[in-house]
Amino acid sequence: MSRKSITLIGAGLNGPLLALGLVKRGFKVQILEKRPDMRRIPISAGRSINLALSTRGIHALKQAGLWTTMQNIIIPMKGRMMHSVASELTFQPYGKDESEVINSISRAELNISLMNAAEERGVKIFFQRRCTGTNFKTGSIEVRDERSGEVRTLEADIVIGCDGSASAIRNEMLKLSRFNYSQEYLDYGYKELTIRAGPGGKHLLETNALHIWPRGNYMLIGLPNVDGSFACILFLPFEGTDSFARLSTHSDVEQFFQSRFPDAVPLLPNLRENFFANPTGAMVTIKCSPWHVRGRALLLGDAAHAIVPFFGQGINCGFEDCSVLLDLLDRWDADWERVFREFEQARKPNTDAIADLAVENFVEMRDRVADPRFLFRKKLELALQAKYPQLFVPKYAMVTFHRIPYATALKRGKVQDEMLSELSDGIERIEDLDWNKADRLVHSALTPLELV
Ligand SMILES: Cc1cc2nc3c(=O)[nH]c(=O)nc-3n(C[C@H](O)[C@H](O)[C@H](O)COP(=O)(O)OP(=O)(O)OC[C@H]3O[C@@H](n4cnc5c(N)ncnc54)[C@H](O)[C@@H]3O)c2cc1C
């Protein structure tokens, strides 16, 4: 097998994890990263979000031998804690029992752990090196040193764009003929805020929950940090009655929060300052193909398929990309063209599916979680799962607690949604469920699942 040298663009989350798997297989790997090293220079305000890590991401971290050390920087979240405008709390578990949790992790901490592990295995990471172009014919990469402004050309056998939703490698592919590309922005933006830690580093809200303040067409969420704080995100339309456009002064912000999220206000002492210091982010779904240029270049992670964050799957999906690519390398040795082709064939239907599921879940999070009928459907789902564990697995569980292909989760989820509508029609208690009808529907519409 020819052990080619591989250049990854981007030392975000996918780059270092993929690099680890590649060096383990004997490849020489370097990463070019446009930003400074966050281990030396503090990350900028508003770039400290937490991620929800679940089964797919954990599986990839276990394969890389990193999951045990990650346990120190995660907080399991057992369910959603809903905060009403009247400051009432309602808890809704995520799964069938306490084994089904999602894990809050700081993006920065995860990134640092991955970079440390990659460097310990011999991966070279070059910071403040921005890829400004690549030539797919010759394999050359143009790189600008962000400190001096000097531009140099490097040679690479293989280049993999792990450079996120604004990928420079994808931009080069856009210049090729018959490259398919679509991007769709939400009309919503997001803003990061922080709930401070209490005395002695204690959490001021329930620790093991993802807190949601659902308000119809917008919401605030909070994910716990190990230092006792919560990383919060406000999702709000850019324009309209309740929107970022209407929050232009300190008093606008204060009044908005006092009237919509009253119980959060005392926990956000630097609300006004943070609100204006932190940028308002945009959210986009990007689909494209092909993801590769022969056996020379490939897109992976957000560069190939950026999704909106409402299913908490962006990095779980990206880490699953890494697992699939490395499995294919093991199967086909370094027949790169075949590996890249089969990678895209295996992943594209699934990444398209999670993109659609993520948009769909936004409505559920910001609006439906507060609806009693929705909560009853959730109970019904759990009752059906308990009775038919191989057949009826809730959509959320298929995506989050299993590695069932996303496309299967999307397809079965639609069938199950119709079943739930039919079975819940006219009843308000599980005791009133027509189990004969449930039996008929489940057995006629669903085949047994392989619960990976
Ligand atoms: C608000 C929000 C909440 C989210 N919540 C979750 C969640 O709960 N769970 C989840 O799984 N996912 C979540 N995500 C998604 C997740 O953050 C992304 O899917 C993930 O970061 C993608 O990883 P990546 O390595 O592909 O890209 P990135 O993490 O974006 O990394 C790309 C890297 O490439 C570098 N780079 C870019 N261009 C160049 C260039 N030209 N030259 C050199 N370097 C370059 C960048 O500086 C960056 O370091 C969330 C995203 C957002 C915005």
What characteristics describe this protein?
alpha/beta; seven-stranded mixed beta sheet; 19 strands; 452 residues; 14 helices; six-stranded mixed beta sheet; binds flavin-adenine dinucleotide; single chain; 37% helix
Structure description:
This protein has 14 helices and 19 strands. With 452 residues, the protein is of the alpha/beta class. Helix 1 links the parallel strand 1 (5-9) and strand 2. It is globular. The site of flavin-adenine dinucleotide (FAD) has 33 residues, from helix 1, strand 3, strand 9, helix 8 and helix 9.
The helix/strand class is alpha/beta
Instruction: Specify the overall morphology.
Output: globular
Strand adjacency order, main sheet? 6-5-14-15-16-13-17
CA radius of gyration: 23 Å
C-alpha termini separation:
32 Å
For the secondary structure, the number of strands is 19
In DSSP terms, counting alpha (H) and pi (I) runs of 4 or more, how many helices? 14
Q: What percent strand? A: 15-25%
Describe the sheet with the most strands: 7 strands, mixed
Which molecules are bound besides the chains? flavin-adenine dinucleotide
Arithmetic mean pLDDT: 93
Low-confidence segments: none
Helical residues, percent: 25-40%
